[in-house]
């Protein structure tokens, strides 16, 4: 494998593609070298938990917002991956419907490319609805839970 010489033009082109396509990450490989750009966020490494049965049934559906069917006050996924409601198999879930959460408190884990990313609550409030089940594949922008 040859020594990697970073081509700033390639990096800028890839970064532009992230913005144009609203992707959360992009990977490029050439000549045995791989470059991966990831938009924002904190990365935490941990072992992947095994899938378990859903923990809580969703509460009554809140009113939809103007964003095309996304519930009002919904926390949406910042990336494509798999949602885990607990830190490991058999452990209690991070939150459940009716819990009061603080800003910055971990709501769930989003696993993407074998990297575990805790999703912090963007605000304080009460968990009104959990819209995903444990181990469920999720898309960028998909509603995950409602906090009011």
From TrEMBL:
Keywords: Biotin, Fatty acid biosynthesis, Fatty acid metabolism, Lipid biosynthesis, Lipid metabolism. GO terms for biological process: fatty acid biosynthetic process. It holds the Pfam family Biotin_lipoyl. The keyword Lipid biosynthesis applies. Pathway: Lipid metabolism; fatty acid biosynthesis. Residues 72-148 form the Lipoyl-binding domain. The keyword Lipid biosynthesis applies. GO terms for molecular function: acetyl-CoA carboxylase activity. PROSITE patterns: BIOTIN (PS00188), BIOTINYL_LIPOYL (PS50968). GO terms for cellular component: acetyl-CoA carboxylase complex. This protein is a component of the acetyl coenzyme A carboxylase complex; first, biotin carboxylase catalyzes the carboxylation of the carrier protein and then the transcarboxylase transfers the carboxyl group to form malonyl-CoA. This is Biotin carboxyl carrier protein of acetyl-CoA carboxylase. It comes from Kiloniella litopenaei.
């Amino acid at each position: 494998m040859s020594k990697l010489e970073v081509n700033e033009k390639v990096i800028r082109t890839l970064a532009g593609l992230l913005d144009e396509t609203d992707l959360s990450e992009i990977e490029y490989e050439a000549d045995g070298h791989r470059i991966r750009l990831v938009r924002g966020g904190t990365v935490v490494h941990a072992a992947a938990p095994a899938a378990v049965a859903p923990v809580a049934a969703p509460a009554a559906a809140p009113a939809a917002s103007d964003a095309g069917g996304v519930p009002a006050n919904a926390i949406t996924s910042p990336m494509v991956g798999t949602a885990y409601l607990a830190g490991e198999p058999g452990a209690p879930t991070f939150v459940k419907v009716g819990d009061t959460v603080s800003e910055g408190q971990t709501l769930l884990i989003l696993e993407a490319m074998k990297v575990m990313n805790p999703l912090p609550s963007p605000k304080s409030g009460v968990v009104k609805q959990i819209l995903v089940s444990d181990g469920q594949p999720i898309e960028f922008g998909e509603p995950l839970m409602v906090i009011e």
